[in-house]
Design goal:
The protein is an alpha/beta fold. It folds into 2 domains: about 220 residues, Spore Coat Polysaccharide Biosynthesis Protein SpsA, Chain A (Alpha-Beta Complex); about 70 residues. The chain has 10 helices and 7 strands.
Length: about 325
C-alpha cells in the first residue's frame, strides 16, 4: 500500500468509444491540478464498437490508463467487481464512461474519505438531465431502498462513488447488485456512509444502455439482498418461524372442527363438506413445506465454506 497511488478510478463501459478520450483527458487534467498519483481502470464489458482500440491508444500514451476487456457483455456488476479486484489505490472512485459524471468531483470525494473518515461516499445527482420516464421510477426506487435498507441516501444508483480501499476489498458485487453497493458495504460492517451532491451532465454521445426493466429487476434484487443480509446465515429463523405459525393455525382449525363434529354438533355437516377444513389442510401443508425449506437452507448454510468468514477490523494479538 505504501507505493500505491492515491486514487484508483474504476470505469465500467459498454460501447462508449466517442467519450473515452475526452473523459481520459478530463480526469488527467484534474489529477495533475491536485497532484494526485492515480490509475484509471477502464473495464470494457464486451463492447462491440472500437472502445478497446481507444483504451489501447490511451494506455500507450499514458501508462496511468489501464484496461480490462471481457469477451462478452457480463453486466455492470461484473465490470465493477473486476475493477475492484484490480484496483490498488488508497481511495477508489467509480464513475460512468458517458461523461455524465464529472471528474471535477474527485478531489472533494477524496477528501471526504481521507479527512472526514467516511467508508463510502455516494454521489447524489440533485439536478438531473434525464426524462421524466426515468426520474420518477428512480425516485420510487430510491425511496423503497431507503425504507428497506435503513440507509438514507437520495441516489443509490449514482455511478459516481468513493470508497476506502478496505471496503472494495471486503465486498463482492455480482448479478445486478451494483445498485446496492452501499447496502452490501453496510452488511459487511462499513457503516459510515455519506453522500455528496454532484453535478450531472447531459449525455453528449450515444444512448443509455439501460431500459425500464432495470427498475423491476432492481426491486427484486433489493428483496434478495435484504433477505440474504438478514437471514442468509440462519434461514430457519424466517422459514421455520413462518412454517410453525402456519402449521399451528391450520392444526388448531382442524382440531376445532373435529371437536365440533364429535361433541358439539355430531349430526351437523360432515367435516369433509366444510370448505374451511380444506383451507386448514392447505395451511398445514404450506407450513410444513416452509419449515422444511428453512431446515434445508440451514443445512446448506452450515456446510457452506464461507460460514465462518468474518471481516476483522483490527487485531491486538
Amino acid at each position: 500500500m505504501n507505493n500505491s497511488p492515491y486514487i484508483s478510478v474504476v470505469i465500467p463501459l459498454y460501447n462508449e468509444e466517442e467519450s473515452l478520450a475526452e473523459l481520459a483527458q478530463w480526469i488527467d487534467k484534474v489529477m495533475q491540478q491536485h497532484q494526485f498519483t492515480y490509475e484509471v481502470l477502464f473495464i470494457d464489458d464486451g463492447s462491440k464498437d472500437k472502445s478497446w482500440e481507444v483504451i489501447s491508444r490511451l494506455n500507450q500514451l499514458n501508462p496511468h490508463f489501464k484496461g480490462v476487456r471481457f469477451r462478452r457483455n457480463y453486466g455492470k456488476s461484473a465490470a465493477l467487481n473486476t475493477g475492484f479486484e484490480q484496483a490498488c489505490g488508497k481511495v477508489i472512485i467509480t464513475m460512468d464512461a458517458d461523461l455524465q459524471d464529472s471528474p471535477e468531483e474527485i478531489p472533494e470525494l477524496y477528501k471526504m474519505i481521507t479527512e472526514q473518515g467516511f467508508d463510502l461516499v455516494s454521489g447524489w445527482k440533485k439536478k438531473r438531465y434525464d426524462p421524466l420516464s426515468k426520474t420518477l421510477p428512480t425516485k420510487l426506487f430510491n425511496w423503497a431502498t431507503r425504507k428497506m435498507s435503513g440507509i438514507y441516501l437520495h441516489d443509490f444508483n449514482c455511478g459516481l462513488k468513493a470508497y476506502k480501499h478496505e471496503v472494495i476489498k471486503s465486498i463482492e458485487v455480482y448479478g445486478e447488485m451494483h445498485r446496492y453497493i452501499p447496502v452490501i458495504a453496510k452488511w459487511a460492517g462499513f457503516t459510515k456512509i455519506g453522500e455528496k451532491a454532484v453535478a450531472h451532465q447531459e449525455r453528449k454521445y450515444g444512448t443509455t444502455k439501460f431500459g425500464l426493466e432495470r427498475f423491476v429487476n432492481g426491486f427484486l434484487d433489493l428483496l434478495s439482498i435484504v433477505f440474504v443480509s438478514r437471514f442468509g446465515k440462519s434461514p430457519m429463523h424466517l422459514f421455520g418461524f413462518l412454517g410453525t405459525i402456519m402449521f399451528v393455525i391450520g392444526f388448531l382449525i382442524t382440531l376445532y372442527l373435529g371437536i365440533d363434529k364429535l361433541f358439539i354438533n355430531p349430526k351437523g355437516v360432515l367435516i369433509a363438506d366444510r370448505p374451511v377444513f380444506y383451507l386448514s389442510l392447505v395451511t398445514m401443508i404450506l407450513g410444513t413445506q416452509l419449515f422444511l425449506a428453512g431446515f434445508l437452507g440451514e443445512l446448506i448454510s452450515r456446510n457452506s465454506p464461507t460460514r465462518n468468514q468474518y471481516l476483522i477490523a483490527e487485531k491486538l494479538i
